[in-house]
Structure formats: structure tokens, C-alpha cells
Amino acid sequence: MMQVDVIKKAHSFGHFAATKTEELVKRDYYFPNMRRCIENVIKNCVECILVNKIGPLPTTNKNYNHIFTVIDAFTKFTWLYPTKSTTAQEAIERLKLQQKTFGNPSRVINDKGGAFRSKEFEDYCTDEQISNVQITTGVPRGNGQVERIHGVLIPVLTKMSIEDPTKWFKHVDSLQRELNSGPSRSTKYSPFELLIGVKMKNPEDVIIRNLLEEESQEQLFQHRDNLRKEAKQNILKIQEEKRRTYNRKRKEAHLYKKGDLVAIMRTQFGNKLKLRIKYFRPYQVTQVKPHVRYDVAKIGDHEGPNVTSASADQMKPWT
């Protein structure tokens, strides 16, 4: 019993997953089968439920135009409730449905919407001893699990109800079933299996599964493109900084014309060449090329290539 109390105390610091909770426990304690004990405690923890709402959606003949979303933070099990409004009363009624089966959570994490900030909702949470945690405005990653579901929810419902957008609510149950029967990327198990202990007995809805996979792939590609855009901006920023630094130190290039006599810099140095002259001379400019580049030819008999190309910063006038 003492082990369970220790784990619960560590887990309550932030209701982290098993790995993070294990790290916290190991700071002060050790006991056999720690990982398994931690997973069992977290598996039975109903303290973290994430809630949110999306909409407005096309109004249906039943006047539904929003979806109230509830996600269990550990198992990722998702409940989707079509609603007619975003009032506090709607939110409370949906939480009461959850309460009938699972009891009250210790806290709900929400998007700071008007319903969740209302006195009615605050009073309900106080009466039921539920902590009402509101994420910072403009930081949706604070409720990231809900936001990820919403990123899939709207596109898939749109495709499923393309023939009659006002009938989107008829597909919500099927979509919820599919979300909960497929494996989660983070847990490697389906939300249903983690919550109930067995796999969902359910004929595969191939259309929904394909739509979910397609939407997930599109999100992956979009994320990749965003990363690439950011990387490109970072590269351009560094290049511009280097260009400015170089230009501050760089002297204006000397311009030569055809027929000018010049000395050209030696570009190769080995151990035996360290004490040799740094410039070959004389050379004559035979052709002026773009970007202060020049073709030159050797005059007389001396060390250096007979003909070559050089940039202005590798040349100097010879008299």
C-alpha cells in the first residue's frame, strides 16, 4: 500500500506518463517491479480528462452545430458529443454523462472558452470537487491531445458527409469508434484496449480508416513542409548574417581590363612550398568575365600555370 501511495503522490505532480512518473519516484525510492506498479496505478487513474469543443459546424435538422470532445489523458480514449450550443449547461450535461460510468475526474483541462470560465461551470466543478484547469490563451499545445484530434475530426467528418453536410452528426459515432479501436502512436495500443483490457470487437470500417490514415498523412506532410520552411528561413538568416559580416571586412574589388598586367595568388601550398613566393607574376588579362573573374596568360618564363582564371581578390596590379 505504501508503494501505491508513493506512486500516486509522484504522479499527482503533473499526471505524467509512466516514464516521467518513474523518474520522479526513483529520485527518493526504489522497490521491485516499480515500472509495472507505476503502470498499474496510472492505468487506473481517472484524474486527467481533457475537454474541449469545436464548431460551429453546418447546422443539422436536429440543430447540432458543435462537438464537445472529451479525452482520457492516459488511454487516449475519446468521446465525441454533438451539441446545440457552447453553453456551460451543455458542458455540464456531457460531464454528467461521463460521471454515470466513470465518476468524476480530479481535474478537467480546457481551452478557456466562455462555458468553462462561467460561474455556472466553476460552481459545478467546486461542488463536484473537480479542478478546472484552463490553458493559456493562444497556446493550443497546452491541450495538445484535443487539438490533434480536432485536426483530424473536421476533415474526416467533412469527407464522410460530403453528399449532405447537414448530416455530419450521423457519422460521429462511427468516427469515435474508429478513433478508439486503432492503435495510438504514443502508447502502441488502442484506447479501447487500454481502457477495457480487450481489443474492440468491431467490423473494420474501411472507408473511415482510410480517411483517418489519409488525413494523418496530410498532417504529417504539412508538418514536414512547415519544418522545411522554417529550416529554409533559418538558413537564409544565417547566410545573410555571414554576408553582412563578410561585406564589412571585404574591400571593394579592384577592376581590371583586358591587357592589364597582374600578379596572381598561389592557391596551393604544401610543406615544401611554404617559403615560396605567394604570387606568380607577371600575367596579362586576356578576358574580363562576370562577377570580377578574369582569364589570364603568363608573360615570360617563370613559375606558374601558362593560362588560368582568377578572381579579383586573388590578383593585384603588377608594374
TrEMBL record:
InterPro entries: Integrase_cat-core (IPR001584), Integrase_H2C2 (IPR041588), Retrovirus_Pol_polyprotein (IPR050951), RNaseH-like_sf (IPR012337), RNaseH_sf (IPR036397). Its EC number is 2.7.7.49. One of its GO terms (biological process) is DNA integration. GO terms for molecular function: nucleic acid binding; RNA-directed DNA polymerase activity. Pfam families: Integrase_H2C2 (PF17921), rve (PF00665). Residues 28-199 form the Integrase catalytic domain. PANTHER family: PROTEIN CBG26694, PROTEIN NYNRIN-LIKE. This is RNA-directed DNA polymerase. The gene is pol.
